[in-house]
Amino acid sequence: MKIATLANASVGHTARWVEFFRERGHDVRVWSLEPGPPGLDAQPLPVLPLPGALRYPLAVPALARALDAFAPDLVDAHYVPNYGLMGALAGRHPLAVSPWGSDLLLAGGRDSFQRARARWVLTRADLVVADAENLGAAARALGARPERLKVLPWGIDLDRFRARPDREPGLLLSTRMHEPVYGMDTLIDAVAPVLAARTDARLVVVGDGSLRARLERQATARLPAGRFQFTGRVGPDEMAGWLARAELFLSASHSDSTSVSLLEAMASGATPVVSDIPGNREWVSEGEGARLFPPGDAAGLTRAVERALADPAWREAARTRNRAVVENRADRARNMARVEGWFAALARGEAP
Predict the structure, then answer these.
(1) Same domain, 37 and 145
(2) Residue pLDDT, tens place only, 213-236
(3) SS3 letters across 237-295
């Protein structure tokens, strides 16, 4: 198939998605306003110094010309308000749209304009792929036709993300981006009393984002010197190494669909301590694979971390349970092959 992917080229989700289809022999070209890594070979679109609500639609004429020249069998657009909108405005079919979570769970419900925009895009899609039940429900509420909606987690590379024997006791790991939705300030406040009480504990924060400088200042003020580390962005193999070493995986996200970070932790044996939100509860529950706490509750997160660290037998049972869950439901190769089948059906003019 010839697949035209419209997505933010700087985001790891885009690269993983595109790499799968290229490895399967499809001709995949990527168009993006954001520059991506060299290997992705994303085609640039014009970027005007305007707000996003205008910047993306105004790039559509250039995109439409590029799509006419490429003549794809399918347009594959990611994130509803920007690239989903561009795909719908370009007018080519079949059109597959994949929401990523906050575009519908948060932005889709903020005001009437954003809801109308999401509805306009979703009703024009020939296929909507949501990675969690809560995201699928949001898509249906915003107009996605049930017969065109598929709910399936993208999954993870189970060979790369797996447990190893050299786990580091007391290593607390966060792999979330440094953006407001992920509650990183709550996480740092919550870890402070744990590190004060346990001299063997340390915090490693993997990732980057707009709040990084502020979070580093907060950590410097709240955490013991030499007991925390900000690594910045890392490659997938280094990420897998950190997760395989970590005792606990921490996430204080206020909203999520299926968190790839959570699935990677579950596969790697880093026991999750995560916020009690619907997206996480599709994979774990309190005492069943994880310890949960209310979003934004630093004291609750502290208690959850202390409970998890105090019970090695429970952690071992959680690791075994979590690995079985992801092997059953989150095998990237198997799940993405299903998406490939849906795309192929659309390209043949059939319903997926």
Answers:
(1) yes
(2) 999 999 999 999 999 999 999 989
(3) HHHHHHHHHCCEEEECCCCCCCCHHHHHHHHHCCEEEEECCHHHHCCCEECEEEEEECC
